Every structure is written in C-alpha cells, then in structure tokens.
Amino acid sequence: MRIKFPVVAFFLEITIIILFGIFVKYDISDRGRNFPKESWLHPRYCFSFFSVFQDVHVMIFVGFGFLMTFLKKYGFSSVGINLLIAALGLQWGILLQGFWHMKYNEIHIGIESMITADFSVATVLISFGAVLGKTSPVQVLIMTILEITVFACNEHLVVNVLEVNGLPASMLIIIIIIIIIIIIIIIIIKRDCWWYFPCYNNLKKNIFTGTLFLWLFWPSFNSAIAAAGEAQERAIMNTYFSLAACTMTVFASSILIEQKGKLDMVHIQNATLAGGVAVGSCADLNILPFGAMLIGSIAGIISVLGFKYLTPLFASKLNIQDTCGIHNLHGIPGILGGIASIIAAALQVNNNLSPGMQAAALACSITIALIGGAITGLILRLPFLGQPSDQNCYDDTVYWEVRLNYTGDSTELQNLQKAYSRGNIPSNR
User: Fold this and answer.
1) Which domains occur in the chain, in start order?
2) For position 80, what pLDDT does the model report?
C-alpha cells in the first residue's frame, strides 16, 4: 500500500496533466450543443448554468459519499475514497469524452464539460457502492479509469453513431452501464467476507445526510443536460413529482412488509431515491405529471421489495454481496426507466424519438457494458492490486490512521473524558 498506491496515483495524475497540457483548451467560441452562442457571452447566464453544475457537484461529493456511511468502521473510506474517485474521474472523464469531440486536435471545455464529467463519475461512485469495503484504493483507481473509458465509448456509439440524442440517451447510457458493470464486478469479485459485514451498525448516526442531499438535488441532476427551455423545465418537474410519489410508496411499502409494522431505515435511506433514477430516461419528455408520479410510485415499491427479498436471496443463494444494495436502488429502477422511455417513444410523446433507436441504444449499451464489466472485474482480481483479506473487509484501520475508537456509546465517551482529564491520551486503535 505504501508504495503501490503513491506510484499508481502519481503516474495517473502526471499522465493526465500532460494530456491536458497537450489537448485541452478553454472553449470561447462554441460553448455547448444545447444553447445559442450568444447566451454564453452573458455573465448572468454563465452563473445560472454554474448553479446547476454546483447542484450536480454536491450530489457527487456529498450525496454519494454520505449515502455510504452506514458501515460502523468504514466511514473514513466511504467519504474519503468517494472523494478520491471523484477527483480522478472528473479529470479522466473530461479527457475521454473530449477525445470524441475534438476540434483542430484540441479538446474545448466549458461548464457543460464539467457536468458531463460528473455524470461519468456517478457511474463509478455507484459501482463503488456495490463493492464497498471489499476493494483496495489501488483497485478503486483502476476501476475508475476502466469504467469511465467504457462509459465514454458507449456514449459515443449511442449519441454519435446511432444518433439517439438528448437526455433519454444520456440517462439510458448511465443506467445500463451501472446495471451491467455492477453485476459483473460483484460476480467476479466474489468474497467470503459477508459474515464480517458489520451490517448497518452506524444507522443511529447522521447517515441520512446523503439521502437528503441526493433527494433535494436530483431534479438538477436529471435536467442538467436537457435542452434549455421547456425540456429542461419538464425534467425538473417530472423528477420533482416522481421523487415525491416514490417517497410515499416507500414509506407505505416498508411498514406493510415488515412483520412488526415498523419502518426500516434501510428502505427509507435508499429506496426513496428510486423515483429519481427511474424517471431519468424520460424526465424531459411530455409524460405529464401523473406519468412521472406513476413511474416513481412503481420504482419505490420494487426498490423496497428488492431490499427486503432480493438482497438476502443474492447473498445466500448466489454469494453475490452487494454492500449498498445498488441493484435495488439503481438496477431495477433503471430497467424500469429504460422501459418507460421506450413506451414514451412508442406513444410519440416526443416526435424526435424512435422506439427502434431507443431499443437499439439499449441493446448496444448492454453489450458494451457486459464486455467492459467482464474486463474490469478480471483486472481487479489481479493479486498485486492489494485486495484486502476477508478479515480486513469493512475496516478503516487497514488503510487509515484511526486515533480514537469512539463509536458513539455514552460510556465510552465518559471513559475517554476521564482519560483526558488525567492526561492519559488514548493511543491508536
């Protein structure tokens, strides 16, 4: 760890800096495919678009990070490695997506480039949730590079070759890449450390922070790359209503399926976001508020059922250990969203959409994701990447300097206070 990680990290960052120096330039002439050139020249517009970028950025760095802090002894890694992935991924994402849109052998970047880079980072962060606690920092760096490469290639195929443009294409790419890569990685990186899993021991702390940030800013996430004007406004409103309806059905379903008739925080923390995932592929379409609410309601129900029944089934029968239940929050609702976008195209709620092209984009995304996921999983199994042993899974002390063993217990806090009052500072854990 002391040698491997610095070598890989420095090598990747130096390489990226060199590539930025050679290819990347500020875009001062043609700033975005969705907006007229004149609008970018106005300072007020630049700052208004930057506010959308800020919302997406908060989701990436705060929302996803704190969503994964439910593990009692893995809080440092949940937030810290999230930051590491995002920092590397946004740089690599700008390069990879820029290579497909070069002008005069240069990559021209603007605020929209930063937003699309954050979108590519989201795929890795969600995948990280599936293998949370079972990978080393070196593996995470490699996973970031490979997944964003697959994402950029698939985006080029769907948007530029198949010409399925707009928000449905972008969200469909994200959803399918997430679904397949997570499944392949989980299957290939099978671990027997499930019984070391300190399941939800940290639920008494403020782990709901990540959920609230993601819930509040998801309308910005779904509308950030939609066409300016009515389409972007529809994306905001559809996501807004879908999340609200989803939350209601999640609370009702959670109480209904629990034997004691009580709410399960695992359902509330995760499944309440399924509406934002499911409506993403058709958020900017004229599906009407009731359509968005219907999608969100169904997504909430199937997400809760997944956490209740599918996760234990995968763990016990197939030995597939999805730490954060990503297949319940992003996988199944993502499939629902893909189906909804095809139905919307068939009903001609948007005359620019073709059901055939939507289906073709779906098939191509699945194929590329299967191949990319298999390659990623096989590479991550290489022994020299330093995957932690079963006994060291879900433990910050393997990679972090942890000075205090405080878990929130009042008795332990009193003992620490007495030790400090006597001048006896506790040693490292």
Assistant:
1) 4-394 (1.10.3430.10)
2) 94
Q: Are 69 and 202 in contact (CB under 8 A)?
A: yes
The pLDDT of residue 239: 95
The pLDDT score that the predictor gives to residue 60 is 94
SS (H, E, C) the chain: CCCHHHHHHHHHHHHHHHHHHHHEEECCCCCCCCCCHHHHCCHHHHHHHHHHHHHHHHHHHHHHHHHCCCCCCCHHHHHHHHHHHHHHHHHHHHHHHHHCCCECCEEEECHHHHHHHHHHHHHHHHHHHHCCCCCCHHHHHHHHHHHHHHHHHHHHHHHHHCCCCCHHHHHHHHHHHHHHHHHHHHHHCCCCCHHHCCCCCCCCCCCHHHHHHHHHHHHHHHHCCCCCCHHHHHHHHHHHHHHHHHHHHHHHHHHHHCCCCCCCHHHHHHHHHHHHHHHHHHCCCCCHHHHHHHHHHHHHHHHHHHHHHHHHHHHHHCCCCCCCCHHHHHHHHHHHHHHHHHHHHHCCCCCCCCHHHHHHHHHHHHHHHHHHHHHHHHHHCCHHHCCCCHHHCCCHHHCCCCCCCCCCCHHHHHHHHHHHHCCCCCCCC
Contacts of 413 (CB under 8 A, 6+ apart): 406
| Max Cα-Cα span within the chain | 75
* Per-10-residue mean pLDDT, the chain, length 429: 90 97 81 46 58 91 89 86 95 93 88 90 87 88 91 82 63 60 61 51 63 93 85 93 97 92 90 92 88 96 93 78 83 84 75 70 76 82 81 84 59 54 47
Give the span between the Cα atoms of 75 and 95, in whole angstroms: 31
- Residue 33: the pLDDT is 47
For residue 348, the model assigns a pLDDT of 65
Place of tokens 């509330």: 268
Per the listing, tokens 């007495």 go with 418
Tokens linked to 171:
């969200």
